[in-house]
């Protein structure tokens, strides 16, 4: 047994173990709470049910969409802003040929691994599944 006959050293060791484990539990809990409530819920790779287009939303406000268009495969880069309170995704594509393809504001609904983007002006819906 550790420190067999020394009660004071065992007590000190036990307090140290409890303190370290408590601090670790608090750090892990804070990490998960911050990640759950502050992070971007749309971050990840999404695949369209209809067209097979791939939408990749990065944490730094960058959005990449690739898929098949009229002229073959194309990739669009854009910037996006996610408002988690109002559940709005705003996409800005003003980079030459991709202008207007995905630009606009969308209400988003996220249920498990299904993302539904509803265009705010016309009501068109785009459905994506998390990959």
Describe the structure.
The chain has one helix at residues 7-38; strands at 44-48, 54-57, 62-69, 72-83, 88-92, 104-111, 114-119, 125-130. The longest helix is centred in the N-terminal third of the chain and has 32 residues, at 7-38. Strand 2 (54-57) and strand 3 (62-69) form a beta hairpin. It has one helix and eight strands; from the N terminus they run αββββββββ. The mean pLDDT is 86. The protein has an eight-stranded antiparallel barrel with strand order 1-2-3-4-5-6-7-8. By secondary structure, it is α+β, with helices and mostly antiparallel strands. Helix content is 24%, strand content 41%.
Which features does this protein show?
131 residues; 1 helix
Short description, anyone?
The protein has 131 residues and is an alpha+beta fold. Helix content is 24%, strand content 41%. The protein has one helix at residues 7-38; strands at residues 44-48, 54-57, 62-69, 72-83, 88-92, 104-111, 114-119, 125-130.
Strand residue content: 35-45%
Helical amount = 10-25%
Q: Write down the Rg.
A: 24 Å
Q: What profile does the largest beta sheet have?
A: 8 strands, antiparallel, barrel
| First and last CA, distance | 51 Å
What order do the strands of the largest sheet run in, or round the barrel if closed? Answer: 1-2-3-4-5-6-7-8
Structural class: alpha+beta
Topology as a string of helices (H) and strands (E):
HEEEEEEEE
Helix tally equals 1
- Uncertain segments: none
Q: What is the 3D shape?
A: elongated
Mean pLDDT: 86
């Amino acid at each position: 047994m550790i420190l067999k006959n020394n009660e004071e050293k065992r007590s000190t060791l036990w307090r140290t173990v409890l303190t370290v484990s408590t601090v670790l539990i608090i750090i892990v809990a804070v990490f998960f709470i911050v990640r759950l409530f502050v992070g971007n819920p749309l971050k990840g790779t999404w695949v369209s049910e209809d067209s097979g287009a791939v939408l990749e939303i990065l944490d730094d406000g960058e959005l990449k969409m690739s898929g098949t268009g009229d002229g073959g495969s194309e990739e669009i880069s854009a910037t996006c802003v996610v408002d988690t309170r109002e559940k709005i995704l705003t996409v800005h594509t003003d980079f030459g040929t991709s202008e207007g393809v995905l630009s606009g504001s969308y209400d988003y609904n996220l249920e498990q691994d299904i993302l539904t983007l509803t265009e705010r002006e016309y009501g068109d819906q785009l459905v994506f599944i998390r990959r």
